[in-house]
DEAD/DEAH box helicase family protein (Candidatus Berkiella aquae), 1322 residues
Amino acid sequence: MKFGPPSLSVEQVLDNVTPFEMNADVSLLYLLINVLKGKVPASVLLQINADALNWNISAKKGEYKNQTALYLLLSAASRGKEEAFTVLAKVAENKAVNWDVPLEHVKNAGLTPLHLLMKLVQQRKPQALIVLNKLVARHGLNWNALAGNGSHGQTPFYMFMKAVYAGIPQIIAVFEHVVANNFINWNAKIIEEGEKGITPLLLLLRTAIKGDQKALAVLAKLGENKDINWSAQAENAQGERITPLHLLLLLVLQEKPQALAVLDKIVTRHGLDWNAPVKTVGESNGITAFYMFMKAVHAEIPEVTVLLDHVVANNELNWDAQVLSGKEEGLTPLHLLMLLVQKQKPLALAVLDKVVARHRLNWNASIKVAGNDSNGKTPFYLFMKAVHAGIPQATAVFDRVVANNELNWDTPVLEGEEKDLTPLHWLLLPTGYQNIPVNKQPIILEGGIAPKYQPAGVLPHLPQYERQHAFEQYQYNSQQVFTPLPFSLMPENLFRDAFQINEQEIQATLYSVDGKLDNSRPVFFIFAGRKEAALLPKANDCRCILVLTQTEYEEITRNQIPLEIDMLVVHRLSSPTHGEFNQLHLLTARRLAAFLVAHHFQLNHFAALDDNIESISFQAVSPSANMKAFYDLLVSQLESKGCISVSTASKTRKLREHELGSKFFVFNMALIREYLLELKDVFLLQPPASEANKPLEDAYFQTFLSVMLNGRSRGYEMQPKNLCVLQRSLQHRNACAKTGMKASIFVGPESLTELAPHQQEWLQEALLVINDYITKKIKRYEEKAKQLEVVDLGVQHGLVHHVEPLQNDSSPSQCRQGQFVSAYQTRLKNWQDKKSILRHYQVSAIQAIANQTEPACSILNATGCGKSMILYTLSQEAFAVLNQGELIAVVTPHIDLSNQMYDDFKEYHGKFESDYPLERIISVSSDSQSCSIRLLNYNHSLEENKHILIFCLDSFQKFCEIPENRAKVRLALYDEFHSYAKSLSVLLQDQPTDSLVVGCTATLPAYKVLHNPVYSYPFTQAITDGYLAPIIADGLGMDFSKENVAKLIQFLPTLLQHQQHPGFGKKTALATTKGIIYLPSIADCDAAEKMMAAANIPCMVVHCKSENRKQNIKQFLQQESGFILAVEMLRFGFNDVNLGVVIIAQNLNNPNNRNHVNLLQQMMGRPLRKLGDKIAYVLTFDDNKVVIDHLLKETPHVNIPTNDYLSQSNTYYLDVKGECKVVDSDDDLVTNINPLFTIEVSSDYFYRRKLLPTDSILQENDDKEQMRDDDGLCDEDEEQLFKRYCKPWSIGMKRKRESISVDTAKQETPMQQGKLARYRCS
């Protein structure tokens, strides 16, 4: 044992102890005892060698008998001895120390050092929390040691759970680890009166109720623990009682998935006490666990409702236990069951017979909630309402309920609309639909008529305001994908049985191997008019029935249909009121056949769906749910409604109340049969045969059901989108519309004499409602059509783009006399840049257009040097000499660029203070914010004004298909025409007379379409002039190949995190910048996105099929850093001055292929826009770099790269674990690895820096402000542009690598000498 300074002896420290009479361990005990007694200062503890001592040794006698040295040390810490905590931290690292030694002292029997530590933890002692953190990593701690007497039965784990409940962060952090790696006694009870019966399990549940996610995660795993007592009662000092089962059900009512999973596991076990009541002074007094379970069933929590039958069948349940206080006073589980019976919930109806079989149920318990409509209602009152409603399961047990129970027939309802009604009232009131007390509501139909069915035809859309966010976005845990009609090689059709249906109303044949239809399995009728193209759900545990005509059946069965698919072949449909249906292929006839067959086989429910549904997404109990689970989900939502439907997925349209359904329906056939008693009555659900070829047959039956059921329930309902949606297939769509069907009002059957009076009333009211709906929708659509013809498109388009229309547009309709081209060029020759907005080369380009003599010409202008401003100026000057009805067409390669061009023109209109109305600039494309070609052709307003139309190429080609449109174009400006040179050559063949064509590009196409440029300003000159950022290109150390692309993707995060940018302000590694990575395929982009996301590098994939592409690009423009992964998108026309790097990982290595050269030039031009001292950086495959070096060979480099960039030489490799690693290529480690590629600083940079005059100074650009396309240099600056290089120049030295210096060159390796030499200035 080591004690402090030499001057402090053991004899001086210990009182009456001779150190020579005991060993070091015994001395430790006496030292600790004397510290506790105050005879020795605690500071002495800091001088002992804690690692060399036995902390498990215990005192043999005296008041500290059985206490180990560790226990004594903890006692000192608990008395506030800070030095004890310091020693304790060292002791915690000693794995030989036993924390579980219990005391045998009567007062503190069972206490262990772990108990004392947890007491300090509960006091939030920081040092104790640190010690605990070290201990929990060990297995074998006895967390279940029971302390008796004064410690009231606490275990260390109980104390740990109290700390968890208190929310101590350090405890919560190790919570899951402690539970996962130790055997835990969750049932250990406290015996103290104030916390009597409280267990760790109760504390866990209370923590979970507070919303603690880790507590919920631990709870989820307890369902498998069969040793847990969920019914153990806990009692506090006030005598309040509760069980863990109550708290678990409270979490179930909150629909916590973890609690639902536990409940599913434990209900199968016997021994749960469902009848123990809560005892409290609050509102929950008297509530049993079973009452809470029934509340969850009543709340229609799917995971609970499926357990009802098992709980009822396997437990002795108290259905009569009343809530004794609060807002639910008087309610019993029997009340809740009867409410479910009234709603015809299948699971409640299924257990009703089992419940009433019990004698002596208390049917007379009254609800005692003042101010509530339920006040005074008894279970028997609710039961009698169900009997009166004709619910079969209720009427079936009526006699037994009356015979076996003492019933109070006269208990009145005390409040609400049913005040003073009694159970006897419902017995005496006649039954039947005509006598059911109704509270009829006006029938409201919402929805629309699809444009394809409108008499006016499909109308074009006006430009729409941009949606910042989708209306509704939901996540679903299950999806069922529908598949095309499968065929097999075996002649399986021969094995099906044919079941004939020969009724007066229907003759049909059901082909099936599963027998006749019944209620044992879900039934899906699929209207398979698309025959082989029909999409079907998976038929597992379901009856999947194709509804066909005889001809369709014969065509389909030429192939072999799998046996699990049934076929219903309809031969004849006939009705005395609705006539003979001769066109059995129509959807109306197929629907009728499904209704009739369901009625014939006495089905309670069935589904009917179209054959063009691609998939269904829904919220299921289990993510692996199948089509049967989806059917059961819908049936559980059906309740007493006539039918329900599934809405079509849409991110831009909200679901409206009363909206009519389509595509997928589930019908409550049991309810419908109560009203349509005979088979012939079913025809009322659909129009007569004479109107079977009209659309809206689905709206017809939903309207009829609403009328028929009005006052009792809803006829139809669309399910909320957070529950389920369907996705339509885009293939073979509009099959019905192609027949030419158009919406019109329904006339109905010619004669109604065959119908009963109440059926006549239903039909007449249904026709009034549906026809009023149709008439209004058609009228509104026709008004819209007239408006579209005359609306001013410029004004409408402007409003969408936040452009206020000019109130007094006084521009003359005729602005010139004579030819356009001559007037236009004369205006250009006289034009001056009075505001000095343009740069010198932009002015030169405009002057070149003014002086050229061909009808079509081109200009070449570098990327990032303001092509759009040149085009705007040309458009602005042309607009001034247009006459009414004439146009300027600005054409871009695709929609994104046409949108960008419009935004540029809108900005320039204000910058130039143009005097023509801004609303006369219109973007034309299929984009929702633009005008479509269909809209331009439909509308007449273009003839009444002059316009600048900005097209995407596809829209302009369609526009020119109409000669009258083409003839209006006086000036056509083709932006980036290199990308569509061949299409342009076709367009030029029909160029109108007296018109001018100007092409503008940064790279000339290989296909010669226009004359040589009348003016050129290449990017090399723009860089030299300082309008564009200087550029450096490095190779990846490997050539292009599929294998090397995969290698690059694998190493992409590592590369971005380690490669230094040559210069961009404070941005260092590439990962801190913004860039675009061009990859060969979308699959490569997706793979790269996963790699970068795993490394937390912001990125997004952008391609033509990207969802929300427009919004994502806007978001990217606002980011400080991040990357876009693209294939063909954003190669040209994309402007972001903050781009610092592009990585080109595509095969563009042929210098003789003009397309390769152009694409490289366009892509490497993305980061060229000037911003302070930025250097544009390009990384590409070595064979691509050869082409780039050729493009840059005459371009001097004017900015100094950073030393960090110049000094890097990174070798990338995989370590033994397969992880991506990087090492300096000069490192000795390189000789022991298998390098995959090495990125060196390009020698091209050192060559191009020498292109500057030999007496010039190379300086960093001090301009820190953003330089835009349209920012120019003043005259003085331009004159001095090259004078800045007129003094001797120098360049920053590469930083010296470790152990290498210029003065010790003799010690350098040949490789190092070569690498360093190129940085040394001669």
Q: What stands out?
A: Residues 858 and 999 are 4 Å apart (CA to CA).
